Amino acid sequence: MKELSDLISLAETMVKKTRKKVDEIEWYISSSFNIEVEIQGGVVTTKEGEFLGASTRVGEGKRIGVGAISNADTDQLLKMTDRVIQIARVKPDDPDFHHFPDPVCRPSTSGIWDEEILSLDAGYVAQKAHEHVLEAQSVEGITFVEGSIKIQSFQYGVANSRGINVGDGMTFLEANIHCKASKGGPECTGMEAVFSRSLVPLDGIGQTAAQRARDFVDAREAGVGEAELILDNYTASFPIQLLNYGISSKSVQEQRSALIGKVGTHVGSDILSVEEDPFLLDGMQTRKFDDEGIPPTRKEVIRKGVLNTFLHNSYTAHKEGIESTGNGMRGYGQAYSVPPYICPTNMVIEPGKSSLDDMVADVELGILVKHYIMGLYNSNYLTGDFNIIAPNAYLVKNGEIACPLTPTIIAGNIYDLLPQIDAIGKDTRIFDGGKVPALRMGVIKFTSLK
Amino acid sequence: MKVAKNPHSYTEHLKEFHSKESDATFIRLLTTIQWMKAIMEDLLEHAVNFAEKKGIAFLEVRGEEITKNEISSQDDTIKQVNSFTDGGIGVRVIEKGVSGYSFTTHLTKEHVEKAVESAFKIARVSQIYTTIRLPPGEYPFHESDWSPSILHHPQNITFDEKKDLIMRAYESAVECNKRIATVNGYYGEAFGVKTFCNTEGAHIKSDPLIVTVRISVVSKDEGKITGATDEYGGTFGFEAFDAAPPEQLGRNVAVWSEEKLHAKAAPAGKFRALIENKLSGVLAHESFGHLSEYDYVITGGSPLKEKKGEKLGSSQATIIDTGVTSFQEYPGFSVPFDDEGILSREIVILKEGYLTHFLHTRGTAEAEKTAPTGNGRALDYRFAPICRMRNTYFAPGDLSLEEALDMVGDGLYVLGAAGGEVELDGTFLFKPDRAYRIEDGEITTPLRDIGIKGHIFDFLKHICGKTKEVKLASSYFGGCGKGVQEPLFVGFGGPHVVVSEAIFGGTE
Lengths: 450, 508
What we know:
The structure holds 2 protein chains of 2 kinds.
Chain A: H1 4-18, E1 24-40, E2 43-60, E3 63-69, H2 74-90, H3 115-118, H4 122-137, E4 142-160, E5 165-181, E6 188-196, H5 205-214, E7 223-231, H6 237-246, H7 249-253, E8 274-276, E9 299-303, E10 306-307, H8 314-319, E11 328-329, E12 341-342, E13 347-349, H9 356-361, E14 365-369, E15 385-390, E16 393-397, E17 400-404, E18 408-413, H10 414-417, E19 423-424, E20 429-431, E21 434-436, E22 439-448
Parallel strand pairs in A: 7-14, 13-21
Antiparallel strand pairs in A: 1-2, 1-4, 2-3, 4-5, 5-6, 7-22, 8-9, 8-13, 9-10, 11-12, 14-16, 15-18, 16-17, 18-22, 19-22, 20-21
Chain B: H1 10-23, H2 34-54, E1 59-74, E2 77-95, E3 98-104, H3 109-125, E4 143-146, H4 159-176, E5 180-198, E6 203-206, E7 209-221, E8 224-234, H5 240-243, H6 246-261, E9 269-275, H7 277-289, H8 294-298, E10 319-322, E11 347-351, E12 354-355, H9 362-368, E13 376-377, E14 386-387, E15 391-394, H10 401-408, E16 411-415, E17 419-422, E18 427-431, E19 434-439, E20 442-447, E21 451-455, H11 456-461, E22 463-466, E23 471-473, E24 480-482, E25 485-488, E26 491-494, E27 497-505
Parallel strand pairs in B: 4-6, 9-16, 15-26
Antiparallel strand pairs in B: 1-2, 1-5, 2-3, 5-6, 5-7, 7-8, 9-27, 10-11, 10-15, 11-12, 13-14, 16-19, 17-18, 18-21, 19-20, 21-27, 22-27, 23-26, 24-25
Helix pairs in contact in B: 1-2, 2-3, 4-6
């Protein structure tokens, strides 16, 4: 695996070698190493591998060309540069392109780089995954278990002809256990997932997932109706994932956001504050620079219900005559294959004072959605309408959890629900896009039929 | 071991490539980086020889170099032109029925040897945790070379012609609907070379191809905002756009987004319904196809375990999965061989309601004591092949669209697929892109966002009619997900399907 300094140095070298060919140029070099173990039933699939690649963006007047290759051989990169310049030259002008970003100096922080994760080998990871699967299988009534553990390191260097020359590295651990349970009738499911930047104990995740599945073997149907929606601190990440689309300046500039013209107005209830926090110590998205080399900033996206800002990469920012907010991201793994899009770092909902029990206690008729949901990506990101399935939902009646429900459709609109939030949990939980507490969100339509 | 020798040395090849390049004016987007092709075969041969020297009983090695080109526009401006060439080598060792996988993007003998050693080591250390072993069986080696039968390959088409496809769709859209606020156009193509060798002597080369034009609009009126998307994609040459011009995509999204501005809230509950081609394909793929993948069956993950031969659906329920189709205009995505070197063959998974076949890799076929079906597919060289679908569809029926609407009488008409998921217990959720009420056999009110939920067995039992025409959808911009391997190019579709009952979740 290449060192971070090698990646930054290669990006800088490539800028030096190619800057005279074109008005502006940017080089992005990334490498990633991962080990993944999946155990499905009794079948074990283990793999490890490393990939390294490069991307260049060239600016020629008002034209941009983008190329990428899964290689870092200097001769090949030079050859690709010529081809990308050809692309840029035949492409029509884009009046919204101004220039690549200038260097920005402001405080920022790298997330956790855990050498302990990097010291693990495939055999150890397979053993740990096996232990969690065995733990889940030992629970009575469990009919099927699948589990996986993935560890990954990711590093990138980015340099451009305007003087940017930076990089960062990060490590990840992700573990999942998914179980089915049955008492002879229909099967039901349960899962547990852990996201971390460092090696953390995973003890008990098999049992947790198995118990969640078992809790639903006597699930009932509640018919069709309206009820208050309560999300635990696992499923409360779903409003954030829809909101992320709306606060992207690309969505706004392309007339695709339901939040156009809403900066400075109430889009949520007075108790809702959402911050984008690139400094979050244990955040999965904590990073010193975005993938254009700009330090991301901490932003109060929503403060006491009022929308304050949208997120920018350099392209959308320059179109509006402002500077990038450090949200030009390419993702992880084969990041070099994706030009910078707009994505937040860690989205954090400010915790409230309630326990989940308190939030249930005030509800006459509600649906408590726990652990995970299905179908979020099928939502209408444009309007905020969603239709999701909650495999682990409970009916709440007169302040108490009445019974587990069969997989239930929850339908509503996120922008209608944000102003209705009337209780926020005190315990937060890390997910892969930030940190959230439980939320009580107002009235939704449910369909709970067998 | 039998691998064809590359007729050129690396240096000769580079020289030849450079001389061609210097002559070329820029009529194409970036095409495949030819130098990879030159060295790939040598490296694959080296991997197999190295494995044999190490005493490895079974090894597969896949070399891939795929070029992906994309053009995107907003309104009448071309915004991005991207080209990505992805090349690498993946190695799988199977030792006593347990596999180990490793990959590299470093195209050197040293790194390939390291990958072989790593895969071998992983296969060994995984032995103690494995209770279900999947030995690959034995197949005679063969050599094959496949290319799609097309007239105008995208690598011979100019940038301007490709750009014009999305501009034509844009112009057609804004001409039809004055409430359109923004139009995004996308063109995507992927092509290249996949080469497969193994220690049995197989040597298989294929040239995958997918081309897609997508158009997406936003319409606004009196504070309401709606969107619509349409696309046309599959394994075809540019001649396909003669029969399916992009203007039609533009007109479709213009009309659909206008309708959605006036759409009513969708009802919730159980209804009779007519399900259009693309959505019926998503249902065939998600609701049933995944559960017929034998890796889920053998490990107990699928509710189809021990149900072979049982009647699970109505006599109208026939579902097919195949590698290369004969549907001219809507062919889906061609998979001539799978990533284990097995020739694709047509599999009738469900025949008139009876479960007749499962989908197999080499290992799962051996476990069921049957032949592999050509369903061992990997997303790319970074992944080991697992059981995956290819082109999955409901077989056609004998109804016209009017007859199908009459059969529904009063109910819902649901079209397009914004997505779909299925749980391990057979629960599914699908999100149609559009929905209408059907009243007395007539399509009436457009409806807003709606979901269909159900259990596969219930759904298949309620199929009561199908139309005659079959269309398969496939897209460069999306595909099938399984575990972390997504999006895998697939085709899905079928006829219109009538169901006597399905559960819908709306907000009315």
